[in-house]
Amino acid sequence: MITIDRVGKTKGRRTILRDVSFEARPGRVTGFLGPNGAGKTSTIRILLGLDRPGGGRALVDGRPYAAISRPLTVVGALLDGSGAHRARSARAHLRWVAASNGIAGRRVDEVLEIVGLTDDASRRTGRFSLGMSRRLGLAAALLGDPPVLVLDEPVNGLDPGGIRWMRSFLRDSAGQGRTVLLSSHLMGELAEIADDVVVIDKGAVVAQGTLAGVTGDHATLEDAFFALTGSERSW
Amino acid sequence: MVIVELRKLLGLPTAWAGLILGTLAAPALVLVNAPAMRRAIAEGRDVTDLGYQNLGIGLLGAMILGVVIVSSEYTRTGDDVPGARQLTATLMAQPRRMRLFAAKGAALVLVTAAQGALTAVLTVALTRAVHGTSVAPWSAGRITGAVLYWVLLALMAYAITLAARNGVVTLTLLIVNASVVSVSYLLTKVTGLAAYLPDLVGAHMFLRGGPDERIPPVTAGLIMTAWVAAMLAGAAVLFHRRDA
After folding, report:
1. Could you tell me which chain A residue has the CA closest to the CA of B85?
2. Are the beta carbons of B88 and A81 separated by less than 8 Å?
3. Residues A156-170: tens digit of each pLDDT
4. pLDDT by residue (tens digit) across B75-126?
5. Is A7 an 8 Å CB contact of chain B?
6. Measured in whole angstroms, how far is the alpha carbon of residue B78 from the centre of its chain?
7. Measured between beta carbons, which residues in chain A are less than 8 angstroms from residue B74?
8. Which of chain A's residues have a Cβ under 8 Å away from the Cβ of B244?
9. DSSP codes, A108-161
10. Do B77 and A48 touch (CB under 8 A)?
11. Counting Cβ atoms within 10 Å, is residue A123 exposed (0-12), middle (13-18) or buried (19+)?
């Protein structure tokens, strides 16, 4: 269970987040939807303790991330890139990450297998393609077999096969009772897998509820999104 | 946690460059300088610091380690994702920043102390082998002083790099100052107080000769420790407060 409770954030004079509140519940895929720069990544970084909120709380099972011991066994997160130093091999990266949270070394080979990187495990990650980096990032997120998954734009950089795989992986994870929170600016993609949707625009939540609830009378989630944000051409 | 940080550090090629450079530079200098030094000794040169003087060059290795243990966290992981760094993975694995800060510092101290001890002993032994046992007497105190100097400089590099969030600033500042033009040394020509700057004062822990004002080794050690402690405290505050 993820609880975002009245989280605010300013950088300089710019307000990044304003009173953002929502929940992501176990057994459901919660889609966090918004245009680029709306505050999705900032919210996720605050949830993971990487950035500090200006106000409010972001909790996992009632605790701030930093208060969780061996956090990787509770939350698996995928952010931009793999997080691996480019001089390290995929396996060496996963090994130190596993060791840091007391996760058995054999789990490294398991997650490499899950994401399909077994054959590239000894290669330096600096030579990885964008898609391979994403898969390595996902492997790290899965190391601790966590009940909560947080993914920022997970399908970025994946090929069609990878996107399809990711979709069924996330659905299965929720099916097993995990809490899945994923952010995306791809509405069609989100509409395919999300049970619940939180729409954020310019740092504030403009709608939240079940996918059907947020879509409402509109034909698609995309139509609903533009009606909610009133920004047909934000670029 | 310290073991994880050791493992991360020693898994990097740049760290090994620092280790190898730091361990071999001073002994190599003894050999390279040997002919000139023999002549100088024959001409009555002061040999108080022979063997110990060369240790200065090896501290580049310690500085590199102090930089790399932080800069590796802030280096971009790939060209296609500008904001992605190892630090994200590190903080997700260990979100308690002060513990992480301490673990990194401890790992750095262990590596540089081991390296410094090895190099100091090697260098002094080699000096004695080359120039005879009459010069460069074994001195546990001076070797300890040199190792401590080493460790403190590594911690200083660690603190500066963490505050700057990249290694270029530190490397420029420390390496240029230590090897090319010593701004600190030039300042001593302006004011005697400059002798108390962190990089200069520490050398008094293991060097005895030289034209400058003498500062007792223990005093020198305490002053340098205070400098480094202050820098570490500043870096810790920044690291604790800042967004990753």
Report:
1. A83
2. yes
3. 888 898 899 999 999
4. 888 777 777 899 999 999 999 999 999 999 999 999 999 999 998 888 888 8
5. no
6. 29
7. none
8. 45, 50-51
9. HHHHHHHHT-GGGTTSBGGG--HHHHHHHHHHHHHTT--SEEEEESTTTT--HH
10. no
11. middle
Q: How far is B6 from chain A (nearest CA, A)?
A: 10
Average of pLDDT values for B11-34? 87
- How many domains does chain A contain in total? 2
For residue A198, the cross-strand partners are A32, A208
* Domain-terminating residue out of A101, A118, A145: A145
> What pLDDT, in 10s, does the model give residues A88-135?
999 999 999 999 999 999 999 999 999 999 999 999 999 898 889 999
For B171, the token pair is: 């490397």
Q: Is B224 exposed, middle or buried (0-12, 13-18, 19+ CB in 10 A)?
A: buried
ipTM over 0.85: yes
Range of the structural domain that residue A169 is part of: 1-74+148-235
Q: Which of A93, A113, A145 is the last residue of a domain?
A: A145
Which of B8, B14, B78 minimises the CB distance to A96? B8
B70: closest CA among B12, B145, B110, B133?
A: B12
Residue of B73, B75, B92, B241 to mutate for A, most A C-beta atoms under 10 A: B92
